[in-house]
Amino acid sequence: MSVDPEPGDDPRTWGYAACTWCALFAAVHVYWAVGGDAGLASSAGADLATRRPTAFVLLGLWGVALTLLAGAAFAVALARWRPAGGLRRGMTILGWLTGTALLARALLLELVLLTGTGDVASSVGPLETHWSLILWNPWFALGGLMLILATRQFQRT
Fold it and tell me: How far apart are CA 101 and CA 26, in angstroms?
């Protein structure tokens, strides 16, 4: 007799959660890339949000959106795919590195902005600081944590 796992025990849970995080963040970047402006100034700064230089739109908005969509596919692969050997090790390393980088980015920037130290803190305006502290940094931390948990589940299955 087979017993279905509890929802929290499903080895795909965190992979799908990380996929959702990536897809939502990609959608925000696509919205910004096609001309939407809600939240852009608080993320990229008022100057970039107003001027929208071509390089920023192509690399910083479309490029990030495509990278996030690749991340969503990777997260689904962590949830559903069970390769062996070197590919499995590579996926595990990529998952740990990416998740750790996202989490570290969030925590370090949060610390820099809270303490007011460094070039970043002095170059960021009050609007960006406010939204970075309460929205953007926690959002990156959430994504990093979900990717770390998805990688951990991937390793265990």
Answer: 18
